[in-house]
From TrEMBL:
Gene Ontology molecular-function annotations: phosphatidylinositol-3,4-bisphosphate binding; phosphatidylinositol-3,5-bisphosphate binding; phosphatidylinositol-3-phosphate binding; phosphatidylinositol-4,5-bisphosphate binding; phosphatidylinositol-4-phosphate binding; phosphatidylinositol-5-phosphate binding
Name listed for the protein in its UniProt record: Uncharacterized protein
Transmembrane segments: 80-101
Keyword Membrane: yes
Keywords: Membrane, Transmembrane, Transmembrane helix
Coiled coil: none
Length: 104
């Protein structure tokens, strides 16, 4: 999949790879949810594209996923977390996710 094909969706910045790495040298994927309704189909396409970018060596180190749901509703955050479980566990990427929640 080429970026030019999904450029309008990418411009919405539904998710992004910041370029940062965690302690394990795994890539950091950030999903900033907002007050507007998040289109789950567009988010899924964005995640598919972003997760296809890193090399196999980088993918083997895993990902740290930050879901920033401070400006969103809990049901949207829950849907995104379930989507991530499908992508990472059932999708066969071999990467595990550790979910940590902080409520303020």
């Amino acid at each position: 999949m080429e970026a030019s094909v999904i450029l309008p969706i990418l411009k919405k910045k539904l998710a992004f790879l910041s370029g940062g790495k965690d302690r394990r040298s795994g890539l950091i994927l950030t999903i900033p949810l907002c007050l507007e309704q998040t289109n789950m189909d567009e988010l899924s396409v964005t995640l598919d594209y972003l997760l296809s970018i890193p090399s196999e060596k980088c993918k083997a180190r895993g990902f740290t996923v930050i879901v920033d749901g401070r400006k969103s509703q809990w049901n949207v955050v829950k849907t995104v977390v379930l989507m991530l479980q499908v992508i990472f566990f059932l999708g066969g990427s071999g990467s595990g996710l550790i979910f940590m929640f902080e409520f303020v």
